[in-house]
Amino acid sequence: MHLSIKATNTYKHNGIMEIKNFVGLASDHAAFPLKQFVKKYLDEKGIKYYDYGTYTEESCNYATFGHALANAIEAGECYPGIAMCGSGEGISMTLNKHQQIRAGLVWRPEIAHLIREHNNANVIVFPGRFISEEVCRECLDEFFATEFAGGRHQQRIEDIPVK
Fold this sequence. Notes:
Elements: E1 10-13, E2 17-20, E3 23-27, H1 32-45, E4 49-51, H2 62-74, E5 81-85, H3 89-95, E6 103-105, H4 109-117, E7 123-127, H5 133-145, H6 152-158
């Protein structure tokens, strides 16, 4: 499902991360339970979100939902994104096929910090089968609380897209 929404509602979470309209979510069946936890986390924090799928634990293709989230971010409908699949790898690969997406696979808060600070990641990705809810929460807290450092890292991320 693809929405046509203009990014007009921008706000900051904890005074650090700018959220445009809402956070976009995507998962496959293997990470569906973790996505339900992420929704509760976002509700607790008062952060709006839109779920680009999947909506059940029935076997599905992670790429379908990864592309939907990436397209929404590139269209300015949402920012940032949170994605997950069983290993986190498949949906990461899918997301990173999009030129404007910088998705980082995270399993520790330190990595969540670095994907924001050094890579200006616009999607955090979780390995749904290999991360606890507690660690997921810590990673989300760190992701939302970390600013992009800019400086020497700016040129590095500008060199990422295929030209």
